[in-house]
Amino acid sequence: METSVRLLRLLSLFQARPDWTGAELAGRLSVTTRTVRNDIERLRALGYEVRSTSGTAGGYRLGSGAALPPLLLDDEEAVAVAVSLHAAATGGVTGIEETAPRALAKLHRMLPPRPRHRFEALRTATVAVTGRGPTVAPGTLTAIAAAIRDREQVRFDYRDRDGTTSARTAEPHRLVHTGHRWYLLAWDTARGDWRTFRADRVRLRTPNGPRFAPRHPPEGAAEHVLRGVASRAWAHRARVRLHAPPERLAALLPPAAGVLGEDGVLETGGPSLPDLAGFLLSLDVPFTVLDPPELRDVLVRLADRCTAAAGPGAPAARRAKPR
């Protein structure tokens, strides 16, 4: 086996499983352990971080190097990366609409025929709607993510909806992407409570604050963010119980629709009560209004209008008994 081919085989073994003994690698490549040692040095010269330990339990382990070396992907992994890059341009991150196509072009040139045809079929059959909302800088997201990992407080200037800027210190918990915007869920140390911050309005200060012991919000990060965003975004809020199987509700309700409890109670809202009623009726599932009472009145008026619009020959509407 030529040296270049053997190095690619060796690299594929490392990416399939990180830890190998010298004897195992020699057996897989049909070479001596001395040749394995020489090939390991060649990989290190190419930028791969290959760590070695001696002794009976020793061996080799592939680590992270100072630079990004070439990667080996199977067909499924290559298609997954290509699809992700294709969709990344609408992910609400500043500048990625330029870097993602460049990375995709490099990957596309190297794709074998079978995964290339699969990706091309998907690309030509779909149309992406580019987001028109505000975007966030990649450096802001990675800096916040690093602070979450290291459990370090973040200090930043935050711009509210009315344009007012305030200095904040917070213990970051999670970044939440709703499909249109990025949010930071964090414990605001000055206010002593959980707060949701739009990441595109965050201007980080350096250095970070001290380390902190992690806290846990009263509910999941995504649910807490959606509930907090809804309380500020919706002029009218409501609680309704949807009478449908959970799997059907999961398929019907987009993340922005609100927070759905295990008991089928949906906390949702809308710009007006008629708009909210129209949204609930569009789900085409039975529901019961729990709150507010004004929404019930709107639904009754809509029912009367629909009955009148159906004409005199239409069957009378059946009023459901209150649950």
Characterise the protein shown here.
The protein is of the alpha+beta class and 323 residues long. 43% of the residues lie in helices and 21% in strands. The protein is built from eleven helices and twelve strands. The protein has helices at residues 3-16, 22-29, 33-45, 75-88, 96-110, 113-125, 138-150, 221-233, 246-252, 273-282, 293-310, and strands at residues 19-20, 49-53, 59-63, 154-159, 165-177, 182-188, 193-198, 202-205, 236-242, 259-260, 265-270, 287-291. A five-stranded antiparallel sheet has the order 7-6-5-4-8. The chain has a four-stranded antiparallel sheet with strand order 10-11-9-12. Strand 6 and strand 7 (193-198) form a beta hairpin. Helix 1 (3-16) packs across helix 3, helix 4 (75-88) packs parallel to helix 6 and helix 10 (273-282) packs across helix 11 (293-310). The longest helix is centred in the C-terminal third of the chain and has 18 residues, at 293-310. The chain is elongated. The termini are far apart. Mean pLDDT is 81; it is low at 319-323.
Helicity level = 40-55%
Largest sheet: 5 strands, antiparallel
Order of helices and strands: HEHHEEHHHHEEEEEHEHEEHEH
Low-confidence sequence ranges? 319-323
Strand content: 15-25%
Q: How many DSSP E strands?
A: 12
Distance between the termini: 76 Å
Shape: elongated
Radius of gyration: 28 Å
**Spatial order of strands in the largest sheet:** 7-6-5-4-8
* Average residue pLDDT: 81
